[in-house]
User: Fold these one by one.
Assistant:
Number 1:
Amino acid sequence: MSSTIANPASSAGAVETESDIQIAARRARRRRTALVWLGRLLVPVIIIGGWQWFTSAGIVDKFFFGQPTGVYHALVDLFTKGTAFGSIWLNLWITIKEALYGFLLGTGAGIVFGLLLGQNRFLAEVFGPYIKIANSIPRIILGSIFVVAFGLGTFPKVLLAAVLVFFIVFFNAFQGVREVDQNLVANVKVLGASPLQVARHVTIPSALTWIIASLHTAFGFSIIGALVAEVLGAQHGIGLIIVQAQGQFDMDTVFAAMLIMAVVTLVAESFLALLEKRVLSWRPPSRSEAQAI
Amino acid sequence: MAERSSRRLAAAPAADDVSADAARIEISGLTKRFLTPKGEPFTAIRDVTFTVEPGQFCAIVGPTGCGKSTTLGQVSGLERPSAGTVKVGGREVQGITRGVSFMFQADALFPWKTVLGNVVIGPTLTGTPRKDAIALARDWLRRVGLAGFEDRYPHQLSGGMRKRVAMAAALINQPKILLMDEPFGALDVQTKAIMQTELLGLWEQLRPSVLFITHDLDEAVALADRVFIMTSSPGSIKHSFDIDLPRPRGEVQEIRHEPRFLELQNQIWASLKDEVERAYAQTAGAA
């Protein structure tokens, strides 16, 4: 009664029921999703379309900057005609193998050293400054040394990728150990846990959150490491294709190789996301929007 | 009066046998000094002396920063005293004391383990076979009223439920000594009262010696057999009061209205008030 007085405009038929609200909310959400996807589609259309238009209109020189259709043809050529160094699949497999071995090696070493130094104050203080120094040098230059020292094979690439990955994983593992809830440690210690049990039940699972988070960045860096080492000197691999194409001023092929590696990284990312979901299933649903991206 | 009483037990002692002596905590002349980050020595507690009889429920009440938690750290063996001794069951504490459980104000639960996983950790660490440990953990979860929540994760529980998990995890190994550092400090008033009543119920079944730290005087009087008042920093034992409220005490909320409760509470507050004011003046002066 009072509501009709307060709001005389509303007739009896306009009273909102719960299902009305629900339907309206669903409609609003659907509209939002549609808008987001429309925006997502527009971004590549504008960028790639603009690129194509500017280069074909002659405003931008396609000799230097390539052209989307050219990139497409380069891609087709790579997959149908292959390269001077064997089929694209062979080269791709070699690069992936190098990146993967480097990733595994660097991650393993990073985790071991991170956990060790994170738990041992003395070691951390002794090695601390040297790790900072090692981290501040441009490690990518090590690629030159590795290629000269270890030849044109797989090993120097793996090594460079591993060095890049190591520091990322190491710092995260180290920080993860440092962030362990000291109450938890005290709790299991009082319950009679040995140092090994403390590590197994508290330190490692706790640091795992940090380590897993670092793997996304780390994998990207392992690809970079493998590619750069290939550019510096190789007999096979995507990096070699790129440096060869650069020498022939064939920008379309450079872009095509870039695209192929982006797809590889995306696939690896999705595997890592799966791993993250599995290992960190205990975590509350994403706390920030950033995690959703 | 109850003040400065002899070592007479306030409550009837638990089943009197030799092993019960293992649960006696004797602290004498305990002093703990730290180095501040600036490198200056800081005395947290000075010359603390008291005894917790086997099966006794003792509460330590004192102003903030008086070294209550430090005292607990020495009993558990997580920290070493600078001077004085802590004896548990007649033997001096060196390294981690066996048969002790700790409950903190923070939950100290493994966020990555399920409720069951959190409780099962106690027997697992002592080497109990997996199957038995799980059966035991299920039983304890039932006892604290969490049957059916075994597969939840801590973040899916309310504060009171997390406290129950922590309680089951602390009691599952049937400790002879239970150290509690403001365990209910972060709970709302109603939940706190419920948890206190449950703690008393479980304590009466197991009868471990309890050293319970709190700044809540009502909580101390309602739960404990004996209440120690600590001075402001550096902490030492100022007075001890025997709480002769009959056991079992039942509902904690109801005891609070009994005349004897109020009488004891008034007496103890008179002793505590000076220390709280002094501690406040210290921190205000420092700020």
Note: Confidence is low (pLDDT under 50) at residues 1-11, 289-293 of chain A.
Number 2:
Amino acid sequence: MSAAGEGDIRSMTYREAMHEALHEALANDDRVFIMGEDVADYGGTYAVTKGLYEEFGRDRVRNTPLSESGFVGAGIGAALGGLRPIVEIMTVNFSLLALDQLVNTAATFLHMSGGQFNVPLVVRMTTGAGRQLAAQHSHSLEGWFAHVPGLKVIAPATAEDARWMLPTALADPNPVIIFEHSGLYNDRGPVDPDTGPVDLDHAAVRRSGSDLTIVASAGMVPKALAAAEQLDKSAISAEVVDLRSLRPLDIPTLAASLERTNRALVLDEGWRTGGLNAEIAATLTDVCFWSLDAPIARLAGAEVPIPYAKHLEIAAIPQVDDIIAAAANLVRPIG
Amino acid sequence: MNTPATTPAKAGAPFDYLLPSLGADMDVGKIIEWRVDLGDTVHRGDVVAVVETEKSDIDIEIWHDAVVDEFLVPIGEEIEVDTPIARMRHLDGDTAPEPTIPEPTITEPTTPSAPAPVGQRSSRPETPPTLPAVRREGVRVSASPLARRLAAERGLDLADVRGSGPAGAIVEADILSIGASPGNLAPTTERRRGLGTMRSLIADRMARSNREIPHYHLARDVDLAALDSWLTTRNADRPIAKRILPAALYIRAVALAAARHPELNGYWVDGDFEPGTAVNVAMAISLRKGGLVTPHVSAADERSVDDIMSTLTELVAGARSGALRSSWMTGATITITNLGDTGADLVHGVISPPQVALVGFGRVSQRPWVVDGVLEVRPILTTTLAADHRATDGTVGSRFLTTLATLLENPETL
């Protein structure tokens, strides 16, 4: 048995993995505390912090008023004061109320203080559609944060990353925003207890393929993998790359994949216009131009507020069949 | 094939009539005249339109009983093979299947077939835009960046490459396939000028034949004395218009010989011989303006000499007036070239791909000939065979020529 070996690889839900990471953070470092709306007694809107209040007490797991600007600002202050706050914002839609704190303060403080003050803040929030929560709880705005220098933006798509990205984020001296896709919480995946903190800088090839590269993040990753399995039946071999980090983007890994496949389909659950996948497509076109055998394709959400009605919500964001059709069209154009 | 329908069609079911390929080398054509009007009822075999191809203007036929609802392409616009050109509706009781004579696509490297449209949804990304093209020597060449890089590395001129991507763009597969088979080189002139001249088409086709087909050539002299007298007798009481010409007998003889040696009747496709499902004997017909066409007499082994003669008359008239029917132009399984009229003693032919044999007829000349130990002067014809050594060996070809000679020397068997 190896020294670090705590046991076998376990199958965990994404929620359990995130919960265990938070638990570990609270247990290992007294400077760490959690705050957010209903994170204590209620256990968090998505039940990620359930039980932590009972174990660590109200000082370490703190409920806040419905005032995103206020409690994110408090988190920044606590970070500047030497603590390691983990701030939970219920959804990315609500984070807009805290944009001033995040963009004007957290992201700029190191710069504006001439390098004197880091802001070691971790902000967690959910993103994405699929749970019939309608247009004020379902949008995918992580691309907006990925626009901002001074922020690190990560999006775990697997239980393993949900488990092991948090310690790295906490160790970062600067603000890190973690996007948890609400559709992933019940997804189960293997978690290796020996993995330890993972790097946040690299995209991961989740599936190898030779005909095209499907670039995905967060909730798009399992859909891309499901599409790739089905494309295999049509003799189309798709490589799936999970971005993991939305800022900075790991362009070398994406480019290396594209150099192998010569075609890319970039997915984004968010809106197409001005979306993060436009940035990825444009950058890859710059870097890989002479290896492209087809224009880089994008598949994104419909340009509408996410609808409440189930069938309309399904229609508004890329689904497995859409990915299959887009990939097939890229590899074997119809007409 | 004209339409995808091969099963009995439902009355009233709409279908698109596609521009048929009128030869292995035809990629594009132009509708120059509709021979039907909207609302017309057409029947199997009816001429629907006249299509201009590199070869000539060809009447295209419909294989269904149908009503014409809509024309989908304008007159005079260059369109690709398989473009829907008219929308039609099946008539009640129309069960006509597609003609099954294939014109195998040859030497085209295997490229992935069109995708089975998998799970298409409304939010499918927009159709691929036309790739950026460059203009060079008056040519627009659309090619992917990767294809450009690969072509440059291989010293290939993109103008010479046939594109299989969106809007005919050249993609990686097109360049790589040239390494494997030079057959993917586009007909240069066609690319440069749209519909090229017949000369360029012949140039491309024959160059391909010489490049790809390992020919072997055999010859056999035939005594035509019996055939001459048989013809004289046969034609004696016929008006000129009804007379049989030797060419009809040549076609009949070649058809019978090909039926007996089926290894020479068919196609070389994708590394394998594919026997013809019928014996369709093409005849090279030279045109006054230059060039030649090769319409065929279908199932010539099952037709009488008179029938072949009347068909041949139609073919020649059609060829010379530029009114060839599509059914004449596709599906030939073996070809004859007859250069005797212009004085050549014998022909070393070049096979018309994807066929595997070409039979040559030279001049009939009076030559000393030994008959039963006695020297006589006889009308002697030198027949030749050019055959594809991939498909057959010389023994097969030699037996074929012997059969042909025996048939021609015993015209009553024709």
Note: The two ends of chain B are 34 Å apart (CA to CA).
Number 3:
Amino acid sequence: MPSMTMIQALRSAMDVMLGRDDDVVIYGQDVGYFGGVFRCTDGLQAKHGRTRVFDAPINEGGIVGSAIGMAAYGLRPVVEVQFADYVYPAYDQIVSEAARLRYRSAGDFTAPITIRMPCGGGIYGGQTHSQSPEALFTHVCGIRTVMPSTPYDAKGLLIASIENNDPVIFLEPKRLYNGPFDGYPDRPVVPWSAHPASEVPEGHYTVPLDKAVVARPGKELTVLTYGTMVYVSEAAAKESGVDAEIIDLRTLWPLDLPTVIASVKKTGRCVVVHEATRTSGFGAELASLVQEHCFYHLETPIERVAGWDTPYPHAQEWAYFAGPARVAAAFRRAMEA
Amino acid sequence: MSKRATEPAVTPAKSAALTAARPSSVATANAPTYDPGPLRLHVPEPTGRPGQQTDFSYLRISAPGEVRRPPLDVSPGDTADMAGALVRVLDDDGHAVGPWAPEVEPETLRRGLRSMMKTRAFDARMLIAQRQKKISFYMQCLGEEAIAIAHALALREGDMCFPTYRQQGLLLSRDDIDMVELMCQLMSNTKDPVKGRQLPVMYSYKRAGFFTISGNLATQFIQAVGWAMASAIKGDTKIASGWIGDGSTAESDFHTALTFAHVYRAPVILNVVNNQWAISTFQAIAGGESSTFAARGVGCGIASLRVDGNDFLAVLAASRWAAERARNNLGPTMIEWITYRAGAHSTSDEPTRYRPAGDWQAFPLGDPIERLKKHLMTLGVWSQEEHEATQKELEAQVLAALKQAEQFGTLHDGHQTPLRSMFEDVYEEMPPHLEDQLRQAERGD
């Protein structure tokens, strides 16, 4: 089985789906001839043709709005927003249109579209290339919000998203594109080839949507997280010596609540970790659900580790990013209380 | 404060007259004199307010038959003159004149007239039903009936319209859409096809080429372009027709649609229904003062026309021209339809507060029903007696349909879709959290 980076795995997913389904089309800024600024669509136009994989004007509202029209026709568009930070002009089309088409027309029209966008920081991208806007989507009824953390999941979840008949917001943690970054910016990058989850089948397979996975089994404490923070939490477990059970949510919403509840009831402690800003972040919903369903099993208050409530800084990136030290500190607080 | 700051050198009416006297492409029509500071903000005004008479000279109306008919493969830039003129076919005597006069069977026109009368009768009865609180809200298309109904004649089965809330004529002109079902939607009753989820008039009819209507304006314009792009990607023969009002052309989705339509040469007709008013804002506030909306199309590389929207034959001819261009890979066409919103914006609006009450009677392009009626009588294929009989017949049909629809309930009599339906269709399959919330709602806790 070949070893793939997350970029190669995503490209393979789109290649497979372009080959299997004539209704799949892929477009976005720079995704055609050039193959995308992160190279995710490299070679796909040459292989599948210019009317299946093509460049779009710099207009996110237009990219998503036209995709909704294409979906209403019967296609299955996969569109790229170059950075999640650029998605806001498309927000009306996502929230008011794609998410509600099925509902408002009672199933007469649907929007099976996948909106891919790189998210998260750690690349010195400053405030316009680093954001994690997932909570703006988990708040919206009618869409799925998905974020993979491994090449294997990235391909399987992307294929499942494309095949899904509802719109999917597919967030790609860009710091994981080339390796499982664990939050130590001063250490050398570990390549995906050194990680078992980089073994990715060449053909078609899916990873189920709406299902979390236990990334690291543990007994003392439950970590609810996703994306880059899965690896940061693993590093924090090592650093703190806490036997943490790390749940990689994979699909943020609809949430795999049974997996969350089972783990928290087992460990009696819960730490929620995400890169996004803290206030009204998705962690707030997770903390609320945990107290609602596991209150009498909790030994200590739920801890939240998140980005500060500031715009994502440039020079002070590593003071902003919730690295292993901050996550480990939260683990210790949860254990000591 | 100087006198200049409080008393504009150019009054709105004078400004409009100046605008009317100049070619539409002159962008400096509102800055007629050299006038160094203090700087003034220009806030456009209509030429008439309540108690005044509107000066409709701002409309820039061409004579019937006067405007040329370019070849189908005209270069978009060569339609600049069309975007400033006004395509008209019917003259004041009811004759079809000029290069745009379409070849059309009298029977088709008789059916068109009947559809317009049916739409008007339907609207009138639904306004009464709203006052009787059988429906919560209504939007009529009084005075604009010709646009949707004649346009529909240029489309084929399988084409897709992305309408606004004022194109009910697209549905009411079809024999396969039952008025009873439309009324069930309006009353949100147990037979409402969209299960009480949408405001009245926000219909969805995929089988009739009618995209689900959104209350968020302009979003459908770029979706129409996307639909057309899909048809082209698949090598299909179907085309899309997108609709927008003058007011919402100010939204970015409008400009987005023009860009995408031009870039991908999408087989789409981009209709701008300029009925002069967006709720209480005059079309000049959307940007219609020194330019036409059709001129936006030309600026974006799209062949564009400006057409008398109250002239059934002009609407038919221009729509056919645009549809044929789309089907022949000649790309998008923008059409600005000039008309007048004769009624209130909706049942929640009171237009006498912001515009002269007699505007519609003074509107120079008249009433589309009266104009087509006159044409048919001139042709000798319609009579006053037939007209009156048809009117009575349609009113009776609408009333009978309403009685039938009311059997399935009205908004406030408790006949609604079951509670479960509120939680369905959010996703294809109901996820666990919605199952939970449904159970909570059923328990009432």
Note: The longest helix of chain B spans residues 106-131.
